[in-house]
Amino acid sequence: MPAYALTQSPTLKAAVTASDRVLLEIQRAIVEGDLPPGSKISEPDLARRFHVSRAPLREALARLERCHLIERLPNVGARVVKLSVDGLVSLYQLREELEGLACRLAAEQMSDEEIEQMQALLDKHLSTQRVRDGESYYQEAGDLDFHYRIILGSKNPYLINILCDELYFLVRMYRVQLGMNGPRVSRAFDEHKAILHAIANRDGELADLLMRRHISASRHNIELTLKNNEEQI
Amino acid sequence: MPAYALTQSPTLKAAVTASDRVLLEIQRAIVEGDLPPGSKISEPDLARRFHVSRAPLREALARLERCHLIERLPNVGARVVKLSVDGLVSLYQLREELEGLACRLAAEQMSDEEIEQMQALLDKHLSTQRVRDGESYYQEAGDLDFHYRIILGSKNPYLINILCDELYFLVRMYRVQLGMNGPRVSRAFDEHKAILHAIANRDGELADLLMRRHISASRHNIELTLKNNEEQI
DNA sequence: GCAGGCATAATTGTCGACACCTTGAGAGTG
DNA sequence: CACTCTCAAGGTGTCGACAATTATGCCTGC
């Protein structure tokens, strides 16, 4: 399998084409709620806004559909996805399964060097977290970085593609729009550490189990916020 | 989650647009080896061949990339994927995990009526198989139909999307190009029956286990053929 | 006042043409 | 002979315009 199979998304490569650029901008806009959930996507409007023609814009829309940030109907158009409890549950069911698998594979496939680099990464995150206690953004970035590395460590290109290119933007959207809060931020570090420890011991089964629990806990956290939000409406 | 989230692929809906039509034709051509693995995809060439302009063709190519039938490089172009043992292993690792999950969810989510319909489907397949013993195509279609129904029964839209829209064309490509052969054809029926029985008993764990074994056996079957093929070259 | 149909406006799908990039062949040089 | 550079040819990325479809608002009729 050629290496470029892993570089389909412009997040992992330089944004060489206009379509890539626009994709990144719209992804950010949707994830951060700049384009609100449920809102209509007008192609002529967006094309003007990002100074491109409709051709690269439509290419970008196709990729946005691929990562579940918009939904399209032929001859009708696209809308930004709405966040829901059902959607969250479905998404995290998959995450538990797939990232569990990623852990098992990573425990077999990652090199000692890669594992050492991850340990260094965790140490770095720990120190910055102590300094900026409560600032969720850094925790957010650090958490995603941790998960990314394990997924890449699985060395399974299809698994990497699904998690990194197709599901993670939606995961980020839930987390950014519903906010990460409370004691989970500090507890997540310990869970990361335990998972990495299991991988370092080449104990794939344990890493799998711990990752599933880690993701399940994260889901419950978001689910609570989401249900509160829905009640407020 | 709206219903049309499940109808992104033209396989499950009417091919209303030119892009849909071309997509279906090229999918078939690649899966059946009409466009051979590794061959270059020339946009002007294909556009002439299918009597459309490059705009809908490129839309179709984007979706072909999504289901891993072609690989693209910016400013370079697209090639039909090559089949390999590594690719097969990666693909079936995912299938085991995801279809196992689908079984667990289907055991919870499927209605009694849906389960009865599946039993009727199996009976029908059994009778046609007895008649046309050895004809792999019908078995092929029947097997896919069985897996499709379980996946749909999971009621998880993301899972359905990944398996039915993104991975199954590649699975079909391996099976069609490497051929299904030997005693597996008849044994697969028994395995299907056992899986469905577990689902009917609402025993998700057992269905999960049986499905993983079923897929694993299928993989070993194809792997053998693939390795023989590579040795011949 | 309301339902239904019609015409208009706006949006999406498709087309052909152009600009830029990559690639491969061939000339030139060490 | 090997290596580099140039350049032409083909292909991809992008653009603006047209055709087909859908949404909107008005009008008519009940």
UniProtKB/TrEMBL annotation, chains A, B:
Q: What is this protein called?
A: GntR family transcriptional regulator
Keywords attached to this Swiss-Prot or TrEMBL record, sorted alphabetically, are: DNA-binding, Transcription, Transcription regulation
What organism does the UniProt record list as the source?
Aliidiomarina taiwanensis
> Record's PROSITE patterns?
HTH_GNTR
User: The organism's lineage?
Assistant: Bacteria, Pseudomonadati, Pseudomonadota, Gammaproteobacteria, Alteromonadales
Give the matching InterPro entries: GntR_C, TF_FadR/GntR_C, Tscrpt_reg_HTH_GntR, WH-like_DNA-bd_sf, WH_DNA-bd_sf
| Xref: SMART domains | FCD, HTH_GNTR
Annotated membrane-spanning segments are: none
Alphabetized GO MF terms: DNA binding; DNA-binding transcription factor activity
Keyword DNA-binding applies: yes
Where in the numbering of this chain does the HTH gntR-type domain appear? 16-83
Against Pfam families, the record matches this protein to: FCD, GntR
- Highest taxon of the lineage: Bacteria
Q: Does the keyword Transmembrane apply?
A: no
